[in-house]
Design a protein that fits this description.
- Keywords: Signal.
- This protein has about 260 residues and is α/β, with parallel strands linked by helices.
- The protein folds into two domains: about 160 residues, 3-Layer(aba) Sandwich (D-Maltodextrin-Binding Protein, domain 2), CATH 3.40.190.10; about 90 residues, D-Maltodextrin-Binding Protein, domain 2 (3-Layer(aba) Sandwich), CATH 3.40.190.10.
- It is about 45% helix and about 25% strand.
- Strands 1, 4, 5, 6, 7 and 13 form a six-stranded mixed sheet that branches. The chain has a three-stranded antiparallel sheet with strand order 11-8-12. A two-stranded antiparallel ribbon has the order 2-3.
- β2 and β3 form a beta hairpin.
- The protein is elongated and about 60 Å long.
- The chain starts with a helix and ends in a 7-residue tail after the last helix.
- About 35% of the residues are buried.
Length: about 260
């Protein structure tokens, strides 16, 4: 019996020692020891993370992350991963952080992960024809035709404001329907609309309304919970990038607008 108790105590000590060792090996220590920060990203989600014509991985989130790594004094290694398995990969330690326009809105994710200072903000935006000045706020869309996906949050918003829904499949079709005057407007994510307007300056469309600052969601770099020191360093780097104009420059490059402020 005494032998069993000794073995049990020894086992408990080993577990405690291992736990302490893992805790001591913090994310910040690992990044500094490697001299590299490993980043999970899709690589297929333009304009945030994608490959340009030359095959180079780029995008707003990618370039922000490179700039953060520079501020931290380390190199950056991207591991392209499908979105469906990305957060599980972070939890399993396949990479140090995730950079993929993550706002971390669900209670389940908030219990498992932490988000840095946001480097982008987005909310609802309304696109109309460039020559249409009759719609300027949500109060103007009653009885007007809205090109919306039937099950989307934006479609629900249009219905709440008593607009008449013209069913479409996705953003591209909704913008086309507005261009063709089969609908008066469409509501969608501001970053998606800004990206389209930046890439299609002769589309004949414009932004007519944008959600107020208090309704916008911020996206940041994501780490596993319990890495407060690393999170603080990363957030400090993001704040520096905003102060020195880097985020503004990158926003204008990819969206034609600074998206780092509400």
């Amino acid at each position: 019996m005494f032998k069993k108790l000794v073995l049990l105590a020894t086992g408990m000590f080993a577990v405690a020692t291992t736990t302490q060792a893992v805790a001591a090996d913090s994310l910040l220590d690992r990044i500094n020891n490697k001299g590299t920060i490993t980043v999970g990203t899709e690589g297929t989600y333009a304009p945030f993370t994608y490959h340009d014509a030359s095959g180079k991985l780029t995008g707003y989130d990618v370039e922000v992350t490179r700039a953060v790594a520079d501020k931290l004094g380390v190199k950056v290694e991207f591991k392209e991963t499908a979105w469906d398995s990305m957060m599980a990969g972070l939890k399993a330690g396949r990479f140090d952080i995730v950079a993929n326009q993550v706002a971390l809105t669900t209670p389940e994710r908030q219990a498992t992960f932490d988000k840095s200072e946001p480097y982008s903000w987005s909310g609802a935006m309304m696109a109309v024809r460039a020559d249409d000045d009759s719609i300027k706020t949500l109060d103007d869309i009653k009885d007007r035709k809205a090109a919306q996906s039937l099950t989307s949050n934006y479609g629900e918003l249009a219905r709440e404001k008593q607009a008449k829904i013209v069913p479409v499949d996705g953003l591209a079709q909704s913008l086309l329907v507005v261009q063709q005057k089969r609908a008066d407007f469409t509501l969608n994510d501001s970053l998606a609309i800004l990206d389209y307007l930046k890439k299609n300056p002769n589309s004949g469309l414009k932004s007519a309304w944008e959600a107020p600052a208090e309704e916008k969601l911020g996206s940041g770099l994501i780490v596993n919970k319990g890495n407060d020191e690393a999170l603080a360093k990363i957030s400090a780097a993001v704040i520096e990038l905003q102060k020195d104009g880097t985020l503004k420059k990158l926003g204008e490059q990819f969206f034609g607008k600074d998206i780092s402020v509400k």
